[in-house]
Amino acid sequence: KQNNYVTAREILRFILQKFVKEPSSPSVRHLTAQAYEELGWTYTFQYQKQASVMFLQRSLELWRSLNDREKQAHLLILIGSVLGDGGDAQYIRRNAAYALRSLHAAQELIHPAMSSFHALQGKYHSKLGLLYCHLGQYALAEDHTRRSLGFLRDGNAAMPRYAEIMEQHLGRVLGRQARYDLALETIGETVRSPLLQSPSDQARSYRTLSDLFFSIGDEQKGVEYLKEAMRLAQAYHLEIQLLGIKITLARHQISLSALA
Q1: What would the pLDDT profile of 20-39 be if each residue is shown by its tens digit?
Q2: Separation CA 118–CA 116 (nearest Å)
Q3: Are 211 and 245 spatial neighbours (Cβ–Cβ below 8 Å)?
Q4: Which backbone phi and psi does 46 adopt, to 5 degrees?
Q5: Which of 24, 121, 147, 252 would bridge with 151, disulfide CB 3.0–4.6 Å?
Q6: Cα–Cα dist 238/247, whole Å
Q7: Alpha-carbon distance 4 to 249, whole Å?
Q8: With b meaning 16 or more CB within 10 Å and e meaning fewer, what string describes 181-204?
Q9: How confident is the model over 104-129, as a mean pLDDT?
Q10: How many alpha carbons fall within 13 Å on the CB side of residue 164?
């Protein structure tokens, strides 16, 4: 998978070199903006956040030059997501203000007339829900996560899988507020969802359950679920889930040897 990202970056850089030689017509800038976004994503998936944000910013600048407010909002949400979700807690706290500025700038651009209005609003509130959870502001995290679900559950958003992921995140937030019965019920429903049965989604589900049981004080179940998450993450080379497992262990002060 590491080689896949490297290959993708080589292809995208080759494409970008070709575009640089072309006249700066709107169509070329459109394609260049898309290429920079994809290049940014290749770094995002490997948690090389500085490079990711740099290329996403380049894409954003091109969409601004094209006066495409919808694409600008999309890129601002992506940048806020890269800065405010995943990675270690210190990184997120250090970049929280930047993430919030990016997300709020996106919200100012979103308009009901946009074709992707429901999807953009759903993603905007979901990223705030994730960020506030990382910051320990659980009431705000719950509020924005519930708002996101209101948009994502709307058929116009066309994001049923992401809605299930955010429903699971709601369960995580409820668990952080010691509302354990409701958290377990909410997470349990998403674990059974046919939309969340890929190895990556299953690993996330087990990790979410593990976090909940560690919070309850049931270390045995917490370890059992985290072992399942680790098994899937290693078998399918799921880098994001492996990082999430390390974060879960650190949060609950559990040694990696517990998963041996």
Answers
A1: 766 578 888 999 999 999 99
A2: 6
A3: no
A4: -110, 15
A5: 121
A6: 14
A7: 28
A8: eebbebbeebbebeebeeeebbbb
A9: 97
A10: 18
